[in-house]
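Supplementary Methods. Inverse-folding protocol.

Structures were first reduced to a C-alpha cell string of length 300. This string, shown here, constituted the complete conditioning input.
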C-alpha cells in the first residue's frame, strides 16, 4: 500500500538498523541500549522523546525480566504506538449543513498549496462543495499555483492581485462561500516567518475578519510541516503553536525522507495531533494519519 511505499526511506534508515541490532546483539546490555538510542536519534525521533522512550523500555525490561533482544521488538512497537496515541481526534472538523473554514499556515515551501489542492480533491470526491482562497498574496507564484490546483481538481479560487491584503481576500472568499452554498472553504496564507510579530499581526487580522463573519471560524488551523527538515519542523511547530492556535498538523514529504521519526517527536513534545500526511506530489498522495498504520508500515 501507499503508506508502506511512502515510508520506505524511513524504514531503511530506522527500522532496518533496529532489526539488525536486535539480531546482532541477542542479549540486552548497556551497549545495546546505547546503540538503540543512537539509531532513534539518527531517525529524528528527537533527544527528549528518545530518552523518555528508553526509560520506559528499561523499566519494562526490568519488570518483565527480559533478556533477549528480540523480545524487545514488540515492546518497542507498542511504546511507539502509545506515544502516537494522544487521544485527540485525527478527523478534520467538518460542520454539517454549515460552512467550515480551514486555515493553512506554515513557512514557504513546506507544501501548503499542494496540501490544499490534495485536500480539496479528497473533500470534493466525498461530495463536498469546496472553495479555495488565495490568501498567500506574498510568495511569487502562489496565487497561480493555487489556481492550477483549482483547475486540476475542479474547484473555484477566490483571489486578488499579488501583494494585496490577505485579510481582504479571506473576507471576499467568505462572502463568496456563503452565497454559493459552499461546504468547506480552504484558505492559503503567506508563510512569512522572518519575524514572529509580523506573522502574528497578519494572522490576527485574518482571524478578526473571519470571526466577524462567522464567530467560530476558523474551525481548523492546520500547520503544514516539511518532514524532510526534521528537527527544524519541530521548531517551527513550537513557534506556530504559540502564535497561531494550531488545531492539527499536516506532515508533508514523508515519501522523500528518512526522518519519519519526526512524527514521533512531534506528538511527544507538542501534543498536537498529526491529522494528515503527504506521501507524494500527486492529487491522491494525501492520507489521514493513523498511528497503528504508521508504525506497522515502518516495522513491516
Ligand atoms: P508552499 O510554499 O508551502 O505552498 O509549498 P508548495 O505547495 O509549493 O510545495 C513545495 C514543493 O513541495 C512542491 O514542489 C511540491 O510539489 C512539493 N511537495 C508538497 N507536498 C509533497 C509531498 O507530500 N511529497 C513530495 N515528495 N513533495 C511534496
Amino acid at each position: 500500500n501507499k503508506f508502506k511505499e511512502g515510508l520506505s526511506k524511513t524504514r531503511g534508515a530506522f527500522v532496518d538498523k533496529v532489526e539488525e541490532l536486535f539480531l546482532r546483539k541477542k542479549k540486552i546490555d548497556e551497549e545495546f541500549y546505547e546503540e538503540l538510542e543512537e539509531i532513534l536519534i539518527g531517525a529524528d525521533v528527537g533527544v527528549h522523546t528518545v530518552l523518555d522512550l528508553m526509560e520506559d523500555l528499561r523499566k519494562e525490561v526490568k519488570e518483565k525480566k527480559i533478556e533477549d533482544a528480540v523480545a524487545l521488538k514488540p515492546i518497542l512497537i507498542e511504546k511507539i504506538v502509545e506515544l502516537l496515541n494522544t487521544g485527540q481526534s485525527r478527523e478534520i472538523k467538518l460542520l454539517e449543513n454549515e460552512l467550515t473554514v480551514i486555515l493553512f499556515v506554515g513557512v514557504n515551501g513546506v507544501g501548503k498549496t499542494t496540501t490544499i489542492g490534495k485536500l480539496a480533491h479528497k473533500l470534493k470526491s466525498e461530495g463536498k462543495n469546496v472553495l479555495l482562497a488565495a490568501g498567500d498574496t506574498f510568495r511569487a507564484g502562489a496565487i497561480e499555483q493555487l489556481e492550477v490546483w483549482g483547475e486540476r481538481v475542479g474547484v473555484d479560487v477566490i483571489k486578488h492581485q499579488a501583494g494585496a491584503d490577505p485579510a481582504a481576500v479571506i473576507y471576499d472568499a467568505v462572502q463568496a462561500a456563503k452565497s454559493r452554498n459552499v461546504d468547506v472553504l480552504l484558505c492559503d496564507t503567506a508563510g512569512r516567518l522572518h519575524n514572529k510579530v509580523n506573522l502574528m499581526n497578519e494572522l490576527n487580522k485574518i482571524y478578526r475578519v473571519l470571526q466577524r463573519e462567522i464567530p467560530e471560524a476558523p474551525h481548523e488551523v492546520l500547520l503544514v510541516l516539511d518532514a524532510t527538515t526534521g528537527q527544524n519542523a519541530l521548531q517551527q511547530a513550537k513557534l506556530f503553536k504559540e502564535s497561531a492556535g494550531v488545531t492539527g498538523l499536516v506532515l508533508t514529504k514523508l515519501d522523500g525522507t528518512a526522518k519519519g521519526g519526526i512524527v514521533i517527536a512531534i506528538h511527544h513534545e507538542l501534543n498536537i495531533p498529526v491529522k494528515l500526511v503527504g506521501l507524494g506530489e500527486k492529487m491522491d498522495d494525501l492520507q489521514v494519519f493513523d498511528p497503528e498504520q504508521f508504525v506497522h508500515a515502518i516495522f513491516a
